[in-house]
Amino acid sequence: MPARIDSTEPVVPHAEVESRVSPAASEEAELVTRLRAGDERSFEDLVARYHSTMLSVARNYVKSRAVAEEVVQDAWVGVLNGLDRFEGRSSLKTWILRIVVNTAMTRGGREARSVPFSALVAEDEDPAVAAERFRGPDDGFPGHWAGYPIDWRSLPEQALTGRETLEVVKQAIADLPPTQRTVITLRDVQGWGADEVCAALEVSEGNQRVLLHRARSQVRAALERHLDA
Amino acid sequence: MPDSAEHITCQEVVELVTDYLETALPADETELFEEHLNFCEGCVWYLDQMRTTVATAGRVREQDLPPETRERLLAAFRDWKRS
Fold it and tell me: Which of A21, A84, A126, B2 is deepest in the core (most CB within 10 A)?
């Protein structure tokens, strides 16, 4: 991602990571101006764009969906109250998600889970592809495919673009552990950059990639089960 | 430069594929990865499957907001505006 300097702002050292300004920065600046002026339509746009992402993130920090919904409601109030302090050093979405995370953590006490994104990468996860799909140690080519996966480019286009296939992917994402679901939702469904996800969730680049890898591998496997059937 | 005798297996490729797509593999491992693709059609197809998975996830649309949530948030917005 190319780094751009926003010439309208002095470059000030900042406690948070972001120094890059997204290409949509000027659009965001206009949106923030309209929000500050109390434009309801702009707020509705913002809610439509980010609410479900906020919920998905909040869900990682609290025990129930109901509490996550309260957290997000509180976070929206936090966003509105903080608008005057938003200076565009981070992207608006990163800033909003930081508010969600902070709101969720502040709830503390019985409802808070401990640091979900730092202690999350367990060693004993399933492999991306089951071991029995590969030749065993006694084979002449250990670790190579026992049988090749299917070439999806040879399938009729409809097989990949159909509504049913999309539902399979949607369900596979919904079935993922929350941290993996959050990362793949931000990266692949919403199209965020890796650096934006790391900043918003305060997760290291390495852990972000591990979560993304597990999530994508699971979703691919679900697609494969569907397409091979 | 990696030793010419060095190679990676298909089983390793499927675990490195995300790092490869994220261009997070060190140069020597990238080289081994791409060398493997040169002779292994199965892994070329696997890589394509991962790219297709990412592209398909990109076509998923998230659920619309329930009307009551929308109303509650708009009420919060109006409160904020008045204050």
Answer: A21
